[in-house]
Amino acid sequence: MYGIFRECLVDLQRYGGLGNGSFWIIFWLLLLISSFYLIVKESDVRKKIIFGVMPFVVVAGFLFPVTKKLYVKVVRIENANTYYRILWIIPMYVTIAYAFTKFIGSLNNTVKKRIAVGVAAVVIAVTGSCVYLNEHVYMAENMYHLPQNVIDICDRIKPTEDEGTVRAAFTPELVYFVRQYAPNILMPYGRDYVDHNYYAGVLKLMNEEGEMETQELLYYTRVDLDRYIILPTDKKMDEDITLFDVKLACTIDGYNIYEDILISENREKEREHYVNARIDMYGE
Amino acid sequence: MLMTIWSILRLVIFMFTVPMCIGQLFKFILKKELRTPGITFLLGFFVYSGIIQIISILCIMTIASKPHAFETCFKWSLFVVLLFSVAGIFRFDKTMFKKPDIKGLSIDTKIFYGIFFALVVFQMVMAIVTRIFDGDNSYYVTQSVIAQKMGAMYTVDPNKGGSIMLDGRHALAAIPMWIAFIAKAATVHSTIVAYTAWPILIIPLAYFIYHEIAKVLFADNIALRPIFMIIVNMLMIFGNISIYTPATFFLMRTWQGKSMLTSIAFPTILLIFLWMFKETGGEGNLSLRASFWGLLAMVNMFSGMCSEMGVVFGAGLVMLLTLVLLYSSKRVTVLLGAFCCLIPNIIYVVLYKLM
User: Fold this and answer.
1) DSSP alpha helix (H) spans, A136-260
2) How far apart are CA A227 and CA B213, in angstroms?
3) pLDDT digits (tens, 9 = 90+) for B47-61
4) How far is the alpha carbon of A271 from chain B, nearest alpha carbon, in Å?
5) Rounded alpha-carbon distances, angstroms, from residue A102 to A34, A99, B220
6) Rounded CA separation A250/A228 (Å)
7) Is the CB of residue B231 less than 8 Å away from at least one CB of chain A?
8) Does the predicted model carry a pTM greater than 0.90?
């Protein structure tokens, strides 16, 4: 039980910013001081319960090991990492803002009120972390809010509606965006493979540092019938890929787009021969 | 150029005009004082989501495996949405659109309101000019794109492509189908709708709900409302202390169901209970109380549409607040109201068991 309590406590700390460069305790202190202030100052007993008592009750329930055991039983073990969402039912922002505002309202001087609003804003800004300074926030390059290079590459390779679908192997950093733009481009591995370290031959090669083994790459992409292979221009390969019935279709925004002629020209026997000749070497 | 203007116009119609018209049709369930443009819009928003949700789930459960399932879903949704909207136009009450009386406000209050509006506009502008990376978008946004472009409903793998078995767990949280519906109706790419257009609807709507909460909390002190709103805005903008907070979800994943669960559904549940607390003085009649529970049922439906977890957490929040209402009103009938408003959650649990 103590072990589960520790897990819950870590979840609570992470929610407050542990491991994110923030002092996790500050956010919780802000909430608990606000709740405590409302317990003391709020005259309406219902608001006192909701904004004063409820946060304490939910946090206590969250830290109670049996709650976590029940939660995991209901949502299944693979979703146990969503336990923190229980904390969402605390009306945190309303509670903190209500306490701050109630305090500001209790000041009897206009100047003091103005200063208090400024101080409150500064306290929140200093103790918090600005959403727009997050490392994952970038300036949008287009209305799709996708990297422009992905759109340029997809525009070059995506089939028309009559052509159906096309298969292409992208480097891991691009797979997140490809199908958000062009769902008729199919890939040998997707974002789930990258995020959860699932195995895919192409992904294994893409992730390897140093020279990429050209014949092995082509083995995997030809098994998967990938017509296009998209690689960074600085990616080194042990053999020239264009010696294996592959042509450099174009270079876009730092990526080489290779087109596999065996697949685009539907030379099925040669493709099969290539794959069968290497199945003992690279086959899974 | 003309096509672009026509698409933008349809986006405005399906994101703003339709909820307002549907709200006009159903505003009779609201108490007279609550029949304001904002609350009517909010009501329309929930009914609109309910229409899409019911039709989407019916299609998912019956024809999801058929090619172009979304086409059928879209046609039925469009028919019902337009029917309700047109009916709403006939019941449109123009008198509710009054110019707010700001003459009585002090200079300080006006300045604070100005700061509040500026902060909201700032967040809307940032939503348009910034691109925010989140891995889950590859799932949710792609589901909308697949539905719009390929006609499939949760039967195509969003990550790699190719057919998959119906993903029941995610399919019942039909927010991506709503985005796909609007995208198809406006002939705009779903990705643009999700990332660029959707926040223009959701960000002000969320702050409108918080402002309604402020109106209840500071019923007799208008001057404190903008101060409350500035603090809420600051908590949101500076709320990225971790990836788990509602603020992070609200501004970094605005288009995802979980985000709307915390920024729209939960604050609305709180707001409705605050309204009900006001009515516990005794003068509230049965139909008025029923209207609050009915509204709550719609919010609970929306919670289910947002996320699988929303079904449980929404019910948990309702139950906690019902206990407070029971304590303050001393009326056992509130338990009946709470049970009725949780029927959508119960249906969702059954559906999850079936899928």
Assistant:
1) 148-157, 172-181, 191-196, 201-207, 214-223
2) 56
3) 999 999 999 999 999
4) 21
5) 10, 5, 13
6) 11
7) yes
8) yes
